[in-house]
Design goal:
5 strands, alpha+beta, HIT family, subunit A
């Protein structure tokens, strides 16, 4: 689909960084200054719903989502992980893996909510420093699936 933002292969630096790419899926580290460590697991082909995938494709995709979650938990030490697949705005299968903290800008709401508080600068800065270790941790977690 030509107008789907997730079908395009190239990322602008302000959008994020490609961490891993396989035949069916890819993992992006989203460039979101409020949510360091926010990742997306994206199905490479334009497919709208999970039930459009075969059972084995679903299992493969979810194993990647869980590997990313595990790596994000290990590196970022969040209070909670949000795993979401909404697709309301972009009807292309993708999963969000988002480390959440009680002091993040959106807590206790979702990351798509209105800001609820000002996150302490020193905590955001420390979390941004942790992000540098995330690509290697994610690739290792995915490699362990084989």
């Amino acid at each position: 689909m030509t107008n789907c933002v997730l079908c395009k292969e190239e990322l602008k630096p302000e959008e994020g960084q490609l961490i891993w790419r396989g035949d069916d899926c890819r993992v992006i580290l989203v460039n979101d200054p409020d949510l360091p460590g926010f990742c997306r697991v994206i199905w490479n082909h334009h497919v709208v719903e999970m039930t459009d995938l075969t059972h084995s494709e679903r299992e493969h995709l979810m194993s990647l989502v869980f590997a990313v979650e595990e790596a994000v938990r290990y590196v970022m030490h969040p209070d909670k992980i949000n795993v979401a697949a909404l697709g309301n705005m972009v009807p292309h299968i993708h999963w969000h893996v988002i480390p959440r903290y009680k002091d993040d800008a959106f807590f206790p709401g979702s990351v798509w909510s209105v800001r609820a508080q000002q996150a302490p600068t020193e905590n955001v800065t420390a979390r941004k420093a942790l992000v540098q270790d995330l690509p290697v941790a994610i690739r290792s977690a995915i490699a362990a699936l084989s």
